[in-house]
Design brief:
The complex is a heterodimer of chains A (241) and B (263).
Chain A lengths: L4 E10 L2 E11 L4 E5 L6 H8 L7 E6 L11 E5 L10 H11 L5 H11 L15 H13 L5 E5 L7 H14 L4 E5 L3 H7 L2 E6 L2 E6 L1 H8 L4 H17 L1
Parallel strand pairs in A: 3-7, 3-8, 5-6, 6-7
Antiparallel strand pairs in A: 1-2, 1-4, 8-9
Chain B lengths: L2 H17 L1 H29 L3 H32 L3 H6 L4 H31 L8 H29 L6 H12 L11 H7 L3 H14 L5 H32 L1 H4 L3
The chains are: A alpha/beta (241), B mainly alpha (263).
């Protein structure tokens, strides 16, 4: 079965700064693939290219065999860095995005998502009046409004309390049957719990791809967090040398 | 192009425009201020020179100029609001096409222009007994349409510049109108300008419209050739502005400017 997301030798620079230095990975339907790495490793750049928000310098990026720009109808993104329209209510924001994706039976879909993320009581509250955690949940509703077949989640659980973060992880896991999910987070526990495979990015290069279990074995560490710290410190020392 | 996506954006602009008191005020405030300042100034001047035609030229100019400003500002501000709200990221990640974005802002701006127009002609009639429709509703509509078109041209061009150079150039949206106004011969005939400025003025479709308005008021004639020329310039500039905007979006995606707006 061909991969839903195919990335081959992807390169992207901002001026003289090389953000991605030829990364390759695939994500299958029914798989959650984690992009892991320290700040500035290139995770968000990769996700933004897949979302059609950035144009690559070279390499190949395909979603269902199409360019990201042509696959936007089947894709959606949730990023901790982006907001919805502050002056509009939760319902209004979701309605506009549902219409943009041409979602049928939209009111039913919005209610279903608001119930799922426990924000039905916030339906008529303006987005800018919500707490960070509530905004994150609305962003997640927006990310699922079109029932995407490709879901790009860039630190999407930021600001959630442990109960809601756990619930969100369960929701994300339940979605993966029909979806290819690309996931980034600085919460290693979350990555371990959710991701079937991970790619460890360092200075724009993937230095390792596989399961988190295998990564822990190789580095002889008990947790992914310990592996992360070890690799990040090695990188820091290499830069200083 | 999908109608449902244009509808979605227009609904969003409706929510934005009706939730914000100042956005509602804009539709009436600037036209009213222009009308009051020019109306009383004009009355004073016409009393001095004992010539009522002055009223037609100044008030006609003030009313028509509003359409250019409102159309230009709407294209710009609706897109800028998404940047200010850090929502531009989600918008461009959706399947929205550039043509749909432009058409929806232009159409919504058109509705606001019509509201401003009704308000302005009512105020002008009530305060100064001035009726711009006297020169004919068809001709006035042609003038208005030409000015709205040029408002869209400059709005699209300025937003294109913002996607290229970032928010540091956003003030252009409020500045450019004032730069174009003296060159468009809004309140005086083209012949009043120095000859080198007249050559520049002829690039702007607005110049032909205001010259046409004055001819309609003073000689009761409509110079269709000038109007057609104005329309042709508008269409060429609109195509160029659209191409520039499209390339600016591509440039913003290439340089990362689009994703930097939310940082």
């Amino acid at each position: 079965m061909p991969a839903v997301i195919e990335v081959k030798n992807l390169k992207k620079s901002y001026g003289k700064t090389e953000a991605l230095r030829g990364i390759s990975f695939n994500v299958q339907k029914g798989e959650i693939f984690g992009l892991l790495g320290p700040n500035g490793a290139g995770k968000t750049t990769a996700i933004d290219i897949l979302a059609g928000l950035l144009i690559k310098d070279s390499g190949e990026v395909k979603i269902f065999g199409k360019e990201p720009e042509e696959a936007k109808q089947e894709t959606n993104i949730v990023s901790s860095l982006s907001w919805l329209t502050g002056i509009m209510s939760v319902y209004e924001n979701l309605k506009v995005y549902g219409m943009l994706y041409g979602v049928s039976n939209l009111d039913h879909k919005i209610n279903e998502l608001m119930n799922l993320f426990e924000i039905a009581n916030l339906k008529n509250v303006r987005y800018h009046r919500l707490s960070a955690g509530q905004q994150t949940r609305v962003n997640l509703c927006k990310g699922l409004i079109n029932h995407p077949k490709v879901l790009l989640l860039d630190e999407c659980t930021v600001g959630l309390d442990p109960h809601l973060a756990d619930k969100t992880r369960k929701i994300i896991k339940s979605l993966k049957k029909d979806t290819a999910i690309l996931f980034t987070s600085h919460n290693m526990h979350e990555i371990e719990q959710l991701c079937d495979r991970i790619a460890f990015l360092q200075q724009g290069k993937i230095i390792w791809t596989g399961t988190s279990k295998k990564l822990k074995e190789i580095h002889k560490k008990k947790t992914l967090e310990e592996v992360f710290i070890k690799l990040a410190r090695e990188e820091h020392e290499n830069i200083q040398d | 192009m999908k109608i449902y996506r244009i509808n979605a954006l227009m609904l969003k602009y409706w929510y934005n425009a009706t939730r914000n008191f100042f956005r509602i005020l804009e539709v009436f405030y600037w036209p009213l201020m222009g009308m009051l300042v020019w109306g009383f100034t004009t009355h004073y001047i016409s009393d001095l020179v004992k010539d009522n035609s002055v009223i037609n030229f100044f008030l006609g100019g003030a009313i028509l100029w509003t359409f250019f400003i409102v159309a230009q500002m709407d294209i710009g501000v609706f897109i800028l609001e998404d940047i200010w709200n850090r929502n531009i990221f989600n918008l461009f990640a959706s399947p929205i096409k550039i043509s749909e974005l432009i058409i929806s802002t232009a159409l919504f701006g058109l509705i606001r222009c019509i509201l401003s127009f009704i308000f302005l002609i009512s105020i002008a009639y009530l305060l100064y007994s001035f009726n711009i429709l006297e020169i004919g509703i068809v001709y006035v509509s042609m003038f208005v349409f030409g000015l709205i078109l040029f408002g869209w041209v400059t709005g699209i061009f300025i937003v294109g510049l913002i996607f290229r150079f970032g928010l540091k150039v956003q003030s252009l949206l409020w500045i450019v109108g004032w730069l174009i106004q003296p060159l468009s011969a809004v309140f005086y005939p083209l012949s009043s300008l120095p000859s080198w400025m007249q050559k520049i003025s002829l690039i702007f479709p607005t110049t032909y419209i205001f010259e046409g308005m004055r001819a309609a008021f003073s000689k009761n004639i409509i110079d269709f050739n000038s109007l057609i020329l104005s329309f042709a310039i508008n269409i060429i500039l609109l195509i160029l502005a659209y191409i520039f905007f499209e390339r600016s979006i591509k440039f913003a995606k290439k340089t990362g400017m689009l994703t930097k707006f939310h940082e």
